[in-house]
Amino acid sequence: MHPNALLDMSCELLRAVLKFDSPADGVVSAYFRKNKGLGQRERGTLAETVYTVLRKRLLLQHLAQSGSGPMERRLVILGWAGSEAFLHSALSPQERQWLDQLKTIDHANLAPKLRHNLPDWLAEPLLARLAKDGDETEFWALAAAMNEAAPLDLRVNLLKAKREEAQAALKAAGIEAEATPFSPWGLRVQGKPALNKLEVFTNGTVEVQDEGSQLLALLLDPKRSEMVVDFCAGAGGKTLALGAAMRNTGRLYAFDVSGHRLDALKPRLARSGLSNVYPAQIAHERDDRVKRLTGKIDRVLVDAPCSGLGTLRRNPDLKWRQSPQAVKELQVKQAAILESAARLLKSGGRLVYATCSLLSAENEEIAQAFSAAHPEFEPLAAQDCLERAHVANAASLCEHGFVRLWPHRHGSDGFFAAAWQKK
Ligand SMILES: C[S@@+](CC[C@H](N)C(=O)[O-])C[C@H]1O[C@@H](n2cnc3c(N)ncnc32)[C@H](O)[C@@H]1O
């Protein structure tokens, strides 16, 4: 494709994404579906350029002020993720000169928000949590880590193969993968190879799943023959991990209010070889299907709807699409779902509440309010639970009794989880 044509397409895609009326990954996929002729490399350049602009939006908008021409074109030039020579051949002499000028700016002298690229309402609580005695090093490490692309993590389906066997099968297909540092089920793959046609993927030996998500399933630690509920199962990432941990025995209910998301679970279930999973769409958290199971369940996972701010490496648009108001509304929903889900447990059963948010408002605050209102639920030390589930170095994953995963510390998405036992 001619360089200018690809630059124009990048501008068109960026314009659509910057409307922020739907998630960026959906907008990008829809654009690719509409433009079927695009090659693998061109798709990579388009997607990464748009994601770079989303990640560094405040900085790039600031730098773009000095340029000329349409704003999207300036942003695309600044965020360009393809070959530099290719870009240069599409630029006017004026634009090249502008880019050269910008290279002389020392970013260390720019205002903090142009360096962390976070909205104030998000930067403030993170800084308050991570800065120690005025030392902001950790906050800056988090800001940098969230602006990196996430690695590709896989979960090995132990019903089908041992981790080493899956690793060997990937190697035979030319893909290098190493064991994840904490999850005993995980492999971290180098680069972003296409997996969906490989036998090791189509036969259900591996599934794509961030190591952090694997750790939440390990915290629930379901056993053979138990009755388990994945209350917010979505497309079933954690359901599949739980079903395999139960060795395909017992009963695992996968609830969600979204039939569309549960539909996406079906092909994954078929690959996994699991027959102990029962997906069910519910109207809301007090649905009759839920009520019928009151007091009957051994373990319940609440992977609650949340702001998703722990996944900024994959979904950088979320920091611009979420708001303090949206977080407040989510808190109400999270508390209500946790309350209903807790009723399912029999005595001695385990409840896990989890999110992929970094904000205490959606995490510790929800868990502590639940503990205060429910003395019949005894908080469990997450470290002990993870150690019993053979998670390596579990102490480093926990803070104040909760699981707290951070991209800059653990190389995973940001996650929170709290566990209780019903007395
Ligand atoms: C964080 S996502 C779940 C991700 C999923 N567990 C996984 O591992 O792939 C949260 C899910 O909660 C669902 N949800 C929202 N409100 C709900 C409710 N009242 N009851 C049950 N699920 C709900 C959403 O549809 C969404 O799929």
UniProtKB/TrEMBL annotation:
Example GO biological process: RNA methylation
Positions of the catalytic residues: C356 (nucleophile)
Domain of life: Bacteria
Keyword annotations: Methyltransferase, RNA-binding, S-adenosyl-L-methionine, Transferase
GO terms, molecular function: RNA binding; RNA methyltransferase activity
Record PANTHER family: NOP2 YEAST -RELATED NOL1/NOP2/FMU SUN DOMAIN-CONTAINING (PTHR22807), RIBOSOMAL RNA SMALL SUBUNIT METHYLTRANSFERASE B-RELATED (PTHR22807:SF53)
UniProt name for this protein: RsmB/NOP family class I SAM-dependent RNA methyltransferase
Organism: Paucibacter sediminis
